[in-house]
Input
Amino acid sequence: QVQVVESGGGLVQAGGSLRLSCVASGRIFSISNMDWHRQAPGKQRELVAGITSGGRTTYIDSVKGRFTISRDNAKNTVYLQMNSLKPEDTAVYYCNAEIRVSIRGAATDYWGQGTQVTVSS
Output
């Protein structure tokens, strides 16, 4: 069984910083892509940032230069450092990991339960 658990959300003033963490645990053979998504009230979930197992990163335009995604493959962990936060960054942030549980198994997406980030103006 695989679990994906996020942490690090909270309430912060505009201009502040937060660091989100996401740990995958359980029966894991390999992890390829790890992503952060977010969903604000009344809006669709969107991909914020992604990182491959080799360290290649992608970001949506609205967070470029402010957010940094990184990962520690030895710890099956992905991070999202969020600086210069804005009220429009307020959302529930979800971690997604593409995981294979065996050498023969197909990769499957696993989601965390989400962590709330609230940025006050």
